[in-house]
Amino acid sequence: MSNSYYDMAQICRNGHVITSMAQSSPQSKQKFFSKCGEETVTACDSRGAPIRGYYHVPGVIAPLDYQKPAYCYNCGSPYSWTVKGIEAASELADELEGLTDDEKAQLKNSLPDLVNNSARRTVAEIKFKKIMKKAGSQAIAAMKEILFNVVNETVKKSLFGG
Ligand SMILES: [Zn+2]
Ligand SMILES: [Zn+2]
Does 87 share its domain with 155? Predict the structure, then answer.
């Protein structure tokens, strides 16, 4: 296992993964992502640590189940897709009808906890679902579209089902 290593990922600032193997397959890199036109990055903006990509283990061909990180492992800064996603979801929360100001505030407060793996995530999921249920199915669909590129698979399933 001594030769196992992380490849480098290339991800656009909106959170689309271009490749999880930017180091071993540099030919798949794109300066701007062709599908959304956004600039791509392979490193953290604040200290330049490479974004961890696919984890190579010699002799093991695993399915590509790469999940992009929300925060830099090296300095803890949120990546730009995390920042953008939380901002967009907060703006949407302010626009939602049928919620009290307190519920909107709670909804916004739950967002950072939904993207990290802290112990508060489960509580944030419960709050989020309860408030969004009140906001209605249209609001849920809009929120899903924003958060789809921000939260991980487990949270996606929990918040929006299937
Ligand atoms: Zn993109
Ligand atoms: Zn960093």
Answer: yes
Which of 14-23, 36-45, 124-133, 144-153 is the least confident region? 144-153
CA of 79 to the centre of ligand 2 (A): 8
Q: What is the pLDDT of residue 61?
A: 75
User: Tokens standing for 107?
Assistant: 């909804």
| CA 1 to ligand 1 centroid distance, Å | 34
Q: Which residues contact 94 (CB under 8 A, 6 or more apart)?
A: 104, 108
Cα 128 to averaged position of ligand 2 atoms, centre (Å): 28
Amino acid at 85: G
* Residues 55-73 pLDDT 10s: 988 887 776 778 899 999 9
Domain, as residue range, for 106: 80-160
CB 10 within 8 A of CB 40: yes
Based on the structure, what is the number of domains in the chain?
Answer: 2
